[in-house]
Write a structure and sequence with these properties.
about 400 residues, mainly alpha, Growth Hormone, Chain: A, about 0% strand
């Protein structure tokens, strides 16, 4: 039985987008003010980066495991319920933080939730797509994700405008959209059913093509220079953006990404994902070089907007390409390995960036990110050329 589409998308893709919107509203209410909150506790930039890197990396192995396990049992929704539920439970607990170590513990627990849900959720999206609409569907997911990244900082800005430094109240308030997201997940999303004979029996590295691992190698190099966004927020504050307006500056990139994510995703379905990724990596290089060289508030705002262009060009498109490179019964596993790689690499990336920021100067980590992005773009050109050569053979 063919399900009726909602605004041109399958119900699972649409409702997964709604869940991501509500969850990201909750998360970005917190993340848009967390760097300033931690610095008010006396945390250094290196420690700030370390907290983010450790939390992401140590929980990231779960992304590969949950992706593999969801392929093995043919179910995605239970992993999503546990993952989103844990994150929703942790968000308001940030209000009780009084030490950096306590924040690290909560961030680690919250990232475990993301580690459990991410690959099964992406697998559900990939398994619910009809025809050649993978890029478009992941584009919707990215757009909804970033819509939450608009609403969340706006709510944080509204609260800070009424009462400056009310970080803890923002953390408590973030529970509301998180709970609404869980309700949509329970009542709106259904399993993308798989036949028993098509379920993954066992995992072997050789079951994935060489191009899958080549692409992961490129992503690893790029991610080494793609540290936590917290440093972008810190840089904006140091340039002269007041704390109250930090959430507004942060959401500029989300507004741009929301506007472009679906068109770019659909475009990748037609012209090829690799070309958009090359442009995306080069755009990132321009953004990070700009952050390194500028000391002007208006330039910072423009760079955050351009950062949204980069995000729309890459985030959903990368997942769509991973889905293309993996067999139908291994999409959860492939997406899990990809997401785990991103998270694990964030630890050395954050350590490198935080140390360079504190020990050298505030420009060097951004220059480093620009260099790794240019190198990644060049490697993607090689990826395209070798792919075309294989097709001819």
């Amino acid at each position: 039985m063919v399900q009726k589409k909602i605004f041109g998308f399958s119900p699972n893709v649409f409702y997964t987008g709604i869940v991501s919107f509500l969850t990201d509203t909750s998360a970005k209410m917190v993340y848009s003010v967390m760097p300033m909150f931690l610095m008010s506790l006396g945390v250094s930039k290196t420690s700030l980066s370390l907290i983010e890197g450790v939390a992401e990396s140590t929980a990231s192995l779960l992304k590969a495991f949950s992706g593999y396990w969801s392929d093995k049992i043919g179910k995605n929704k239970p992993f999503m319920l546990i993952g989103y539920g844990l994150s929703t439970l942790i968000m308001p607990l940030y209000a009780t933080v009084v030490t950096p170590l306590q924040m690290l513990f909560y961030r680690f627990a919250e990232r475990i939730g993301k580690g459990i849900r991410t690959a099964p959720r992406d697998s559900l999206v990939a398994g619910s797509v009809e025809k050649n609409e993978t890029g478009k569907s992941f584009g919707l997911h990215k757009a909804m994700d970033n819509s939450g990244a608009i609403v969340g900082p706006l709510l944080a800005f509204f609260v800070l405008s009424l009462k400056p430094d009310s970080f803890r109240f923002i953390f408590l308030l973030s529970a509301i959209p998180g709970i609404l997201g869980i309700l949509v997940l329970i009542f709106g999303i259904k399993e993308a059913k798989k036949k028993k004979e098509n379920l993954l029996q066992k995992f072997r590295f050789r079951d994935f093509p060489k191009r899958f691992y080549l692409f992961l190698a490129i992503i690893f190099i790029f991610t080494l220079g793609n540290s936590t966004d917290a440093l972008l927020i810190v840089k904006a504050n140091e340039v002269g953006v007041k704390v109250t307006f930090i959430p507004l500056v942060y959401l500029v990139s989300s507004v741009v990404s929301v506007a472009l994510a679906i068109p770019f995703g659909s475009w990748s379905d037609r012209i090829g994902r690799e070309k958009l990724l090359i442009v995306g990596f080069l755009t990132y290089a321009v953004v990070y070089f700009g952050f390194g060289i500028t000391g002007n508030i208006y330039t910072i705002v423009a760079l955050f907007a351009l950062y949204g262009v980069y995000s729309a060009l890459t985030d959903g498109v990368q997942k769509a390409l991973v889905s293309d490179l993996a067999d139908k019964n291994k999409k959860g596993t492939g997406l899990g390995i990809y997401n785990a790689l991103l998270g694990i690499t964030l630890l050395p990336a954050s350590l490198i960036a935080g140390t360079l920021y504190d020990k050298v100067n505030s420009s060097i980590p951004f220059y480093f990110g620009a260099v790794t992005a240019v190198l990644s773009a060049l490697l993607m050109v090689v990826f395209v050329i070798t792919g075309q050569k294989q097709k001819r053979e």
